[in-house]
Specification:
Blueprint lengths: L8 H13 L4 H14 L4 H20 L4 H36 L9
Helix pairs in contact: 1-2, 3-4
């Protein structure tokens, strides 16, 4: 299904800047944002429940192990968390890149 969305100039500019920062097209970046919004748990109570269960399974994995069903559940919950974290991960990678550029000069030798 094709959908057209009209944005005001300010929002369109912000979207363009963020897409440029991660080196993707505005179209791909907008699709990513919309997919994330649809897949991310919107209710904070639901998010807490998901994350609490995920953390419980991680603790159990290291203390007594998981059944096959529990391991599958943990994998699914980890995928939800990964998808929910992607936008923040992009920003963290951008910030890390800026720090790396400051830490290693063009000579390739770290500051002492």
């Amino acid at each position: 299904m094709a959908v057209t969305v009209v944005l005001d100039e300010e929002l369109a500019g912000q979207l363009q800047q963020q897409a440029d920062a991660v080196q993707v097209s505005v179209r791909d970046f907008a699709i990513h944002i919309l997919e994330d919004a649809v897949q991310r748990p919107s209710d904070s109570q639901a998010w807490k429940k998901i994350n609490t269960r995920r953390l419980d399974l991680i603790a159990q994995e290291y203390s007594q192990g998981l059944s096959a069903q529990e391991a599958q559940e943990l994998d699914a919950l980890q995928e939800v968390v990964t998808k929910a974290s992607e936008p923040e991960d992009w920003q963290l990678l951008k910030t890390l890149g800026a720090f790396e550029q400051r830490a290693i000069p063009p000579s390739g030798k770290p500051h002492e």
